[in-house]
Amino acid sequence: MHHEVIQRGGQQNVAVRPGEEQLTQSEQELMGEALKPFHAPKLRGLILNIQKSLEQVIDEVSQDELLGAGFDAQALAGFRSGRAGQSERPRRQ
Q1: What is the pTM of this model?
Q2: Which of 32, 54, 78, 87 has the most CB atoms around its CB within 10 Å?
């Protein structure tokens, strides 16, 4: 432990600073407390299931095949009207 005298406004205070060993011990205790919820098998299982459901496999081996290319007047009209990507449905009057 390191003691340091601090003078503020005419008063002297002694500040105690922890040593490296105490800091390491406190760090270990805090990490242990923070990790306690992850010791529950249900939570770990839930996290793994969520991870599996969100995983994406990116195929970098297979060759893509172009199925078609061309101009789409309907898509252009939708883009110009601010409805790009929306399905065409009858408007209510």
Answers
A1: 0.39
A2: 78
